[in-house]
Amino acid sequence: MLNISAAQVDACLTSADLVETLRTAFRKGAVQPVRHHHTVERPEGSDSTLLLMPAWSDFSTVSSGENGYVGVKIATVSPDNNAIGKPAVMAVYLLMNGQTGEPLALIDGQSLTVWRTACASGLAASYLAREDASRLLIVGAGALAPLLARAHSAVRPIRTVRIWNRSPENAVKVAAALRDEGMDAAAVDDLDRAVAEADIVSCATLSSTPLVRGAVLKPGTHVDLIGAFTPTMRESDDEAVARAAVFVDTRAAAVKEAGDIVQALKSGALKEEDIRGDLYELTRGEKPGRKSADEITLFKSVGAAIEDLAAGIAVYERCSRT
C-alpha cells in the first residue's frame, strides 16, 4: 500500500487537469451514499465535526476488465484549531481495489480536500461565471485561498485577485504568496466594496453569519460558496440567494446540510424547485448554466465524496507510475 504525502499530492495535480478529472467523474457518476456527519462535543471551546465520506466506482460506467475503486475519507473539522496555528480540517483518504477491497493507498486528506474543493468550484465556474470574468475576490484566507485563485484562473481569464479576511494579516500573507506566483493579488479591508467590484466572489470560511450581501452584488457576478457545511452556518444572506440563479454540487446534501441553502429554504427566500441544477446535470448537459451576461449565479458546495474519489484515483494512478 502506498502512503502518499501532501507534497506528493501537490506534485501529482494541476488545477486545469483536476477540473477536467472532476468534469469526467460527475458526467460518469459513482455510488455515493450520504456522508456520515457527527458532532463531537467538547467541554470547552467549539464542537468538532467528524465526517465519513464513502464512494465507489459505478460499475455500469467502468470499462470491461477494470476493477474500479472504493474510497473513504475520514475528516474532522475543528474551528478552534485556527487559534493554535493548525488547519481547521484534518483528514486521511483510504483508496481500495473495487473488486477485492485490498487497500491501495493512504493519501494525505487535507491536501486532497483543498485540491478537490477548489477545483469543484472551478468546474462550476466553467458553466456559471461569465466567460470574460477577470476580477476574483476570495473571502477567507485559509488553506483553500491560493488553490481557489489557481482553480478559477484555470477556467476564466482572471487578471486581479483580491482577498478579504477577518484577520487582515492572513489576507496579506496569502496575497504575497500569490504575487510570488505572478498574480496581481492584494488584501482588501472593505468587504462590501470588494464584493461590488468582483466578477467572481469565492467564499471559503467557517462563518455562521452572512458575509456576502445580496444588496451589493452587481449584475453578472458569480458567487461561489464553499463554507457553511452545516445548517447553522452561513456565508450569504437571503437577498443574495433570492437574486441569484442557484446551483449546488449535489442536491441531496445541499438541501440537508448547506446552511446557505437550508436557511434560505426555511425563510422562503428559496424554494427547492428553484435550485436550477447540480454538477451532475451541468456536466451532462441536462441543465443549462449561465443564461445571460447580467444574470447573478450562485454555486453552493458542501463537498461530495465523488470528488474525493476522483482526485484520489488521479493521485494514486500517477504516484504508482513513479
UniProtKB/TrEMBL annotation:
GO terms for cellular component: cytoplasm. Keywords: Lyase. GO terms for biological process: carboxylic acid metabolic process. One of its GO terms (molecular function) is ornithine cyclodeaminase activity. Its EC number is 4.3.1.12. InterPro entries: NAD(P)-bd_dom_sf (IPR036291), ODC_Mu_crystall (IPR003462), ODC_N (IPR023401). Coiled coil: none annotated. Belongs to the ornithine cyclodeaminase/mu-crystallin family. This is Ornithine cyclodeaminase. It comes from Nitratireductor pacificus pht-3B.
